[in-house]
Amino acid sequence: MEKARAWVIEAKDKLAMRELDILEPGDYEVLFKTEVCSLCTVDRRTYKGTRNYGYPFLGGHECSGTIIKTGRGVVGVKAGDKAIFTSGYCNQCELDRSGRGTQCNRKKEMPKRSSLDGNILGGGLSEYLVIPAWQIIRMPDDVDMRHAALTEPLACCIHSIRKARLKFGDTVVIIGMGIMGYFHVKLAQMCGARIIVSETDEEKRKTAIHEGAAYAFDPSQCDVGEEIRRLTDGLGADAVINTIPFKEVWQQAIDMLAPYGRLIAYSSQNSKEPIGVDFGMVHSREIEFIGTLNPTIEDNQMAVKLIGYQMIDMEKVIDREFSFAQGKEAFDYACKPSVYRVMINYGKEDN
């Protein structure tokens, strides 16, 4: 049987290249060949042991590639097409069929995309995967495959922005100017919002202004609630989007909200500590707390269009590129502080 090379996390700080059997696509499935894989936060945290998905672990859910073969009943894509894959929506449960696929509760019952006897999230750190056709979206023929690999994180931010329900002239505060902060800034611009960025790093604050924020401030140097009210005629922000995982940020985010304001919990939280909330204040000010996790298939389709139409500069968030053979170097570099996205390009020659 033909083999696929794969980078598998076998334990904390232990990455190994394995050879896995290439599965044959069945009905309504495609054989997907990975071309570029971006190393996500989940991949990095699992490698460093700060997130435990169980070992061995095959990551890689920010990927682009080519369709190699299609099974019976597949329509819309064919061998040779460039494509990305979405999360493992089963497309059979009530949540998926009602547009709430981010909460799909049957995806773990789906066949594995790879022959790895272990845990798989995405799977694009393997050269070949078998994927249900409804989890595949075709990319334009002329797309930059490095940009296409970033469809999933952009789609996550689209899901977040849509939940924020921004209107023309709204003030939105974006906490954090990492890659997700950048995408939120660009998307909020498209909604006609006035953007304020909260960020401790001076260079990132400069980047926020350059990319379209009206104002950027250091939350460690001021009372954030007072600062936002100063900038909004005493009202506060219509929406606050938090992209960083520290529990201390949540109370700051709440303090920045205007009446009827919406707090978007884009980031997860590193610790499990509870956050004290005065729900009498929530009641009296009519504010909303809104969670957002992953993108729906529709969010992915929107992201594909934005990338295909080159409406967002994706180069801004690509930090460095490695060949497939340099997987260990890629992981170690990606785990450095303040690094944006690191790409493993399967077609790149070794340095």
From TrEMBL:
Enoyl reductase (ER) domain segment(s): 10-344
Signal peptide coordinates: none
Matching SUPFAM superfamilies: GroES-like (SSF50129), NAD(P)-binding Rossmann-fold domains (SSF51735)
One annotated GO molecular function: oxidoreductase activity
Family membership noted in the UniProt record: Belongs to the zinc-containing alcohol dehydrogenase family.
Record keywords, A-Z: Metal-binding, Oxidoreductase, Zinc
Pfam families per UniProt: ADH_N, ADH_zinc_N
Cofactor(s) for this UniProt protein: Zn(2+)
Annotated SMART domains: PKS_ER (SM00829)
InterPro entries: ADH-like_C, ADH-like_N, ADH_Zn_CS, ER, GroES-like_sf, NAD(P)-bd_dom_sf, Zn_alcohol_dh
Protein name (Swiss-Prot/TrEMBL): Chlorophyll synthesis pathway protein BchC
Membrane-crossing residue ranges in chain numbering: none
PROSITE patterns with a match to the protein in the record: ADH_ZINC
